[in-house]
Design a protein that fits this description.
There is one protein chain. By secondary structure, this protein is mainly α. The chain is 60% helix and 1% strand. It has 19 helices and 2 strands. Helix 1 packs antiparallel against helix 2. The longest helix has 18 residues.
Length: 361
């Protein structure tokens, strides 16, 4: 074995720098590709010069593999080299340059991506730059990504919204709310999803307005409201009463997920409406029926041990009304707090949620 050959893992062929250097001079593209691919797996002082040389190769694959390897060097010279590759004429090489900068993950790698997002003439490059800034996750780029939400290229706006969600800084909420008015539906959906990820209550009203204008946002908006949680409970409860089955189904799903993680008395307000959905089954609304039953199951499990005030007695914890009106379990109607339950023993004193669960079965 040559003195500079290094044993590879699990008995693989030795990593021979001299042989790889010779292979990079080969006229055959496939040989140069395999050589630089091997070099890219071992970035370090002994391979740095070869990777820098390979980034100027006439073959795009060689340049792309070189960019991947440069990302493992994590030095100023590699950052400069990758910044140059962002202007490569081949789109795959440009993507590898972005990934190389993201792989470094240090503050010193942000400037090429910021510059590319701001003024690169190619829309996909700007989109890749936005994605890379999101992966690095430095909150100092919020302004750059917010500006990217107004980029003329749809993919850039979409990538900027995803990046803002990934960084998770709520200072981006207002800019994402403005993106709900974007003329492209994919950007609107991405912005709605990002607002759900951030979970800021300020987004509730803009999300509801966006749903009134753009019905194609129902899944993204209602899912976002469900992620926001308690501040969005009122709009979700109202959506259960709409005459649109799709909206009702999504609202039921959102409330069900919310019930699985929140212990809040307001969820009980949803149970009577969910019960009506769960007992009114038809083939056209099968998904709505199933969503309602799942939401009830989650809510009754999570809220079962919370005390429930009797009907007509105010609960100091909240001012929301409980279900009212005459009803009996024998008539197939929803049991209400304070109803008598002749089928259960008087000594057991079942809670309303226990009677509700039995009624539902």
């Amino acid at each position: 074995m040559p003195h500079n050959a290094q044993p590879d893992v699990e008995g693989a062929p030795a990593f021979d720098i001299d042989a790889l250097t010779e292979a990079l001079r080969d006229e055959r593209e496939i040989v140069r590709r395999e050589a630089v691919r091997a070099l890219s797996t071992r970035p370090g002082p002994e391979t740095a010069d070869l990777l820098h040389a390979a980034r100027r190769d006439s073959d795009a694959r060689v340049r792309g593999f070189a960019a991947a390897g440069l990302g493992g060097l994590n030095d100023a010279a590699a950052v400069e080299a990758l910044a140059e590759l962002l202007d490569d004429h081949n789109c795959w090489v440009r993507l590898q340059a972005v990934r190389g900068l993201v792989r470094m993950g240090a503050a010193g790698t942000i400037w090429p991506l910021r510059a590319a997002l701001e003024r690169h003439p190619d829309g996909p490059v700007r989109a890749h730059a936005a994605e890379g800034l999101g992966e690095i996750g430095d909150p100092t780029v919020l302004g750059d990504l917010s500006h990217g939400l107004r980029d003329p290229h749809r993919r850039v706006r979409e990538a900027a919204a995803k990046a803002l969600a990934r960084i998770g800084d709520r200072r981006a909420v207002l800019d994402l709310c403005a993106a709900l008015r974007d003329h492209h539906p994919r950007v609107r959906r991405t912005a709605a999803t990002a607002l759900g990820t951030l979970g800021d209550p300020r987004a509730v009203e803009p999300l509801c307005r966006a749903l009134d204008i753009h019905r194609d946002l129902d899944q993204a908006v209602i899912g976002a409201l469900g992620q926001i949680g308690k501040p969005a409970m009122g709009p979700l409860l109202r959506m259960l009463e709409t005459d649109q089955p799709g909206i009702r189904m999504q609202a039921a799903y959102a409330l069900g997920k919310m019930a699985g993680r929140l212990r809040d008395r307001r969820l009980r307000e949803a149970l009577p409406v969910l019960a009506r959905l769960a007992r009114t089954w038809n083939a056209a609304e099968k998904e709505c029926y199933e969503a309602a039953r799942e939401a009830i199951h989650r809510a009754t499990q999570n809220l079962a041990d919370l005390p429930l005030p009797a009907e007509g007695k105010p609960d100091p914890a909240d001012d929301l009304p409980l279900p009212a009106g005459p009803a009996t379990a024998n008539a197939g109607q929803l049991p209400l707090p304070g109803d008598a339950d002749s089928e259960m023993s008087a000594t057991s004193e079942p809670t309303w949620l226990e009677r509700f669960t039995r009624w539902l079965r």
